[in-house]
Structure formats: structure tokens, C-alpha cells
Write a structure and sequence with these properties.
The protein is an alpha+beta fold and 136 residues long. The chain is built from five helices and five strands. Helix content is 52%, strand content 14%. Helix 1 (49-62) runs antiparallel to helix 2 (67-84) and helix 1 (49-62) runs antiparallel to helix 4 (106-124).
Length: 136
Amino acid sequence: MHITLRSNEKIYINGAVLKADRKVSIELMNDAIFLLEAHVMLEQDAKTLMRQLYFIVQTMLMEPDEHAANRELFNQQGIVMAGIYKDATILEGLIRVAGLVEKRRHFEALKVIRALIPVEDKLLNPNEAPLLAKAS
């Protein structure tokens, strides 16, 4: 897999943080757990239930040694969310995320959660236009 990093961009690979001092292209020659800086959510940005779930799964990906503790947080968050949200898209997404996490496919689970965040935002703020529409 080829990955291109911009100057000063970070990538998280198997728990290690690497920072490029200039634009660089790298090729991962074997299976590795990685996360690009653009997909990393800071704890202070996890202000909704879906974003908190994202942060938990991200932590599971970045700290595989703490899997049991993070898995417990993930399970608790899923129970809370299933009790609060009645939207079919979110509930189906949560089931899909749980299946991916069970298979330790955290990166794919993060992709599903990223797609659910705008759905949650719309539920929480039904009268707000999407962020991209505001920019135009």
C-alpha cells in the first residue's frame, strides 16, 4: 500500500507516531495497523456519542495492548447509543461497527463511524444546513 505524507504530517503505525519532515511517499510492504493524522480525532473533539464511539475505536486501533479495557468502553458506549438512538441508519451502522470491531477490523469500523457522524449531526441539529452547504 502506497501512502503519501505532506511535510509535517503524522502517521500512526502499529502504535508508533511517525512525522514526515518533507513530502514523502512510503510503501507498507506487510500488514500494519495505521491511521493518518487527518483521521485522528482529539479527545476534546469527541463531543457527541458518535464522536465518542469514534474516539474509543481509534484508541483501540492505536493502543492494541489496552484492548480489553477499550473493548469494555466500546460495549458500554454501544449499549448507551442503542438505547438513545432510534434512527435505522444509525442502529444498522452500530451493528456493522460492532461486527467489525469483533473481527478487530478497527480501521474499517472508523470508516463506518465517519459516515454516521453526519447522520447523527442531522438528528441533533435538524434545522442546520450541512457544513458544506454553509460554505457555498
